[in-house]
User: What shape does this take?
Amino acid sequence: MTPERGASANTELGYKGVFLERPNEHAKEMLDLLTKPPEKPLTDDEKEAAYRFDKNLSATELREGVTIKDLIKNSKEETVIAPMMFSKSFLEGKVQSDGINIPSFESHEDVEWWAAEMALSPEVDKIELREIFDASAEAYKEEVANLILTNTDAPEEIFNSMSVVLKPQEAIERMLDLLKARDTLKELRKIHTEKTADNLDGAKRALTDVYLSKINGLVAEQMPILEYVATQALMVGDEKTFTTAMDAMPTMLQKQIKKGNLERVFRNLDFLRNGVSVGESGKPSSVSNRVKQLIAEDDVVDDLKPREAMFSEEQIKKLKTFIIQPNEAVELVETILAKAGKLSSKKPDIDALERAGWASDDLWQVMVDPTKNTYSVKGERGLFLVGNKPRDLFSVLAVGLAHELTHVNQADSDRVVGESLSIIELQGKRTGGIREAGADLKQTDFEMGLSGKPKPRALTYAKALKAFENGGGVANASKAFYDEKIKILPDIDKHKAALEAVDRVMRLTRMGGINSQPMAYAEEVILADEIKDLPEETKTRALTITGLDFVDQVRLHKYGLLPDVSDNIINWQPLILEVADNMINKAINMGNK
Assistant: This one.
């Protein structure tokens, strides 16, 4: 797919021609810019004008009831729009339904035809249909996980699958909205330019480009969805839906699909959506070359120097065997947040998990998540969620607190920026790596303080990628992911680890088998390397605003449009140790007379 006319090559930092670079390429240079004074600072009046321009952009109506903000904020993952259906599960009768009649099938093709027909029918309950497809995926994961655990080769038929778009008309309508938004923003780019002495005009151009980069990413994400719609419509002979889906695609994409160049199309879309890396060979890649260098080695050794440990190895073992119940963890978090002045006076109920917005006093609430055993922070709702299973004290301190409380800092900082800039609310996939890298660095620092040793680097996705690049299939990649996981965590539940490996590798196989977004997890290692030698204050600031990637932050910082968030950066480590002191002492004295 050739870039459209007018999308000229961009030589700015953070770009490779018409594509954004991989998220963490040149991070150090961009962070250096972010910690220097703005190059073209606006006056207070100009800033207010720029912020009004941003709000107007966000509120631009594309059609009745749909604004650019709605379009970006209501973006859904491909897994929601087009879940994968594994036909072997249907052939073997492993999928059941009370509301939808599932016939007997004789071939994989029969299953695919039926699935396409169900998705295109307006009379079928799409929620229940999704549950059926999800059940087929769960059966697939279970089967492959068992093959991993028994070192058995996987038969090729296990992997027969297709992505099924549950609401094709909505998918088509969304693409039309995205293209209209893109055209609107491209017209604005003709009006505003950074090549003048008018800093306000430059700031408006920068804001327009931030919105346009998000829209372009969503267009690239939606294109494969429309290809799925066209494929399933063609499969069942629905000519009207096929024609409508094809007509909603940009002309260049239509031509490439008709030529059968799907792999090339999907790879270029991946570059637009998730970034590109170009190595010494000059060849573009969906994965940072720095990751490829890491996975070329059998073992990766951290060069972080050991520190003086707060606890002995024996005491660390005791912290790792002292069990904390979910309600005890909730009390710990609440006490820490209260000491920081961030705890809501309102107790959350189960409805808080689905509500829009924060508690009425705009402070953090803490509750057990009844659906998950992991800890998480929901910045859009002001919720700190504790996993529903008991965990050892060491992991509660390091992962549950040091890691997740960093996300509290990030969410609070993004809220401060959001008071001025609407665009910060809209987030984006490229920001996930920054968010997690920031929390991982704080977790690593905390663990080193406790034990004197850094946590092992997790190269699970990278090792899976290496298996693919060596010619292996999904089973080989899943096994590589699994082997790396248990190497780092030898005491982990092996069955759960195998299921996780299959689930994660499935993410790499979407979008026609070309989806580099999950590699952001492996690329956190690059970001950590890039910034590890920077001053602590610089690192903390750089990884605190996470609603915009570094490229967009640099664009806006150039004009001084990023508000100061330093007041929201709390050093949680002393508070964690203070509040958990009694539990820690109880754990390390366990068994002593």
Remarks:
- Residues 199-236 form the longest helix (38 residues).
- The radius of gyration is 25 Å.
